[in-house]
């Protein structure tokens, strides 16, 4: 049997048939303080199209933090359930924007919603999402889990497991997992790889605990990387050791 580190090296160099790409809604703001930066949106679309043309089937879950976060709403007096529902709608807005950007450059995409919102999007079904990816479409899975009290990270983990993704790619504003927030602590050091248990025991903010546990239980590895640097998505899919592997 291979040593665990050797297994990771093999994993990093494997051609992924299907991935779940989790995108940050806040990153869509780009240089703006709110909403959707068309330049950043276009950069994302171009990278995703190139990945799809390279033969990787892609499902995407995108957050809504550039528009509304349920927990922040609750802190300001909103009912938590209604606040989370507003956050779900924010993810649908971002998903429609990404779908529009992809379609504009010739990449077919289909928006699925966790709550029935026809004709805004197709009601999510694992099998319909997989069929869309097998036809070369990008499946954009919006609305989180459709239930309050769950983050889009948990939604991404759930959908990644459901659509049988080989890997979950978590695109963020930083280039991996650090011992502390590198935007606040200049002494923070980066992990090249880390286990789910280490993430939990160290209290690292990779994803919420529900999402991390779901990935661990279903053996869905995660690569955390900087999606805002153009070209990084291609590097990850080619097996370059950028970002942090969580396994």
Could you please describe the fold and organization of this structure?
The protein is built from 9 helices and 11 strands. It starts with a helix and ends with a strand. Helix content is 40%, strand content 18%. The protein is globular and about 50 Å long. It has 247 residues and is α/β, with parallel strands linked by helices. Residues 1-8 have low confidence and may be disordered. It has a 9-stranded mixed sheet with strand order 4-3-5-2-1-6-10-11-9, with helices on both faces.
Structure keywords:
single chain; 247 residues; alpha/beta; nine-stranded mixed β-sheet; two-stranded antiparallel ribbon; 9 helices; 11 strands; 40% helix; globular; disordered N terminus
Strand-helix topology:
Layout: H1 4-12, E1 18-23, H2 38-53, E2 57-62, H3 70-75, H4 80-104, E3 109-113, E4 122-123, H5 126-134, E5 138-142, H6 152-162, E6 167-172, E7 177-178, E8 190-191, E9 193-194, H7 196-202, H8 209-217, E10 222-226, H9 232-237, E11 244-246
Parallel strand pairs: 1-2, 1-6, 2-5, 3-4, 3-5, 6-10, 9-11
Antiparallel strand pairs: 7-8, 10-11
